[in-house]
Amino acid sequence: MGQWRIALHALSTARKPPPVSPKANLALTPAKTPADLLRNFCIIAHIDHGKSTLADRMLQLTGVVEPRAMKAQYLDRMDIERERGITIKSQAVRMPWEVDGQSYALNMIDTPGHVDFTYEVSRSLAAGEGAILLVDAAQGIEAQTLANLYLAMENDLTIIPVLNKIDLPAAQPEKYAEELATLIGGEPEDVLKVSGKTGEGVEALLDKIVAEIPAPVGNADAPSRAMIFDSVYDTYRGVVTYVRVVDGKLSPRERIEMMSTGAQHELLEIGVISPEPIPSEGLGVGEVGYLITGVKDVRQSKVGDTVTSAAKPAERQLAGYEEPKPMVFSGLYPLDGTDYPVLRDALDKLKLNDAALVYEPETSAALGFGFRVGFLGLLHLEIVRERLEREFNLDLISTAPNVVYQVEMEDGSHVEVTNPSEFPSGKVNEVREPMVSATVLAPNEFVGAIMELCQSRRGNMKGMDYLSEDRVEIRYALPLAEIVFDFFDVLKSRTRGYASLDWKPEGDQAADLVKVDILLQGEQVDAFSAITHKDKAYSYGVSITGKLRELIPRQQFEVPIQAAIGSRIIARENIRAIRKDVLAKCYGGDISRKRKLLEKQKEGKKRMKMVGRVEVPQEAFIAALSSSDAKDAKEKKK
After folding, report:
1. For 446-459, what is each residue's pLDDT tens digit?
2. Which DSSP state fits 137?
């Protein structure tokens, strides 16, 4: 409560916005707002550097949210975002701001900060002309700060450097202003210093946005063209599409056409988000807003598509976005097989909201019908699974994540392997695995620990630069398979939480990889197979056989669990047989009588072993295949 009192006091003494109600803010009517009075920008930063808090202050200062409706992280709409304190979805909002008696309309997009949601950031950057590069004044530049800065530079955006959290006792604004100015090529005095919590410096930032970010450019008389940069599914209204108008104008009740599919619809409603949807008379050049056509088919609204007028269509589509390439694959299966159609519909609707999601049907002998789903990273996997479970009331099993391998056979044919069970059984000439270029930023005292960790994960050092006398940037080429599990957690623990990591795909390379098969009583169980580096195959075999020995119930006969590479056994555990006490009725007497009974029992066990089958319970598959996150989530639910 204390921080809110500080914020409200600061705002009450600050310059007041134009004295209008939130709905009257649209006196700057979207369809009639000249393009030179528009400013489109987004906020980019590393995770937890205060983007959402700064957005809150902007909403309050511009008057689009009434004080009684205000809450922390206002634009984080999902429960999962609020619980975890992270932004997952970009959110667009229109705000009025007055400078020297002239009213301007600011279209702001608050973006995620985690590397797994970079695709959200790239789409937001394509919808604007400028970006606020936000850096925590107590932590300085982090890995994702650099990654987002390079993305903004690729899009030729005007960048406004800003230091946030200057009210913190640990803040070092002068030191980090110099670091930030060196990075983007400017003077430390040009770096704005603000506090998202108290509102200090936010007015000056809004003025600077109006002064420095260029107005959108487009031809108002040309056929209308609007880029779809996001979509959501509303149960009652169907698909809600978010667009940035580049040329021309879109009006309500007009027939529009999706240029990639040729599908035509009537525009039932068009408007802006301020920050709740507000219908308008249309959207002109440079405007950011939403369209509702009443369409329920989620495939009709593709992110990156161009919307144009059906009566006077444009000749060429807009460039669109580069398709996201999934980096990590995991199987998602419903616990109850009858939920498969529900899971299919849920994935269709979620893909509308998360364009980076890729999936295809898959069947497993152990787990039944499900989907092979591609993700941009482990956090992306975790968030998608949690959203499916919460929003669509599903109980899911997610198999251990793995990456895509390219296998070249001796006969020259190539096989793409997204699942260990697809690994070919013939003679393999070469296996190629995906590589990433990883950037680690940390205090210089942890250089040794970071290098040791990266080398243990088969990394090759590419370079090291000192950003300042006590902060270092280390670059490594690492196999993706080595960083998708616990690399980030280990990195954080070895650097006491000070290191930050960013990575991007960088081709593939040949590696000494093998497929480890698990055999139960001599029979291969595909679901437990894994592709791993030759040096780590033994430890994987030992751990999975030990785990299965605990999970599979004892049978009437002894069951061997073996890990094998091809025909060579590398690890073995035995599940001891359940034995009946056949000597219970022998009270003393000759030992030969007891031996005879034991031999008879032994023969029976041998016959049983020849015809018996080991039934692996569903729980054993779930426990052995699920990622640790999935198991923790299930235990919490219970």
Report:
1. 888 889 999 888 88
2. T
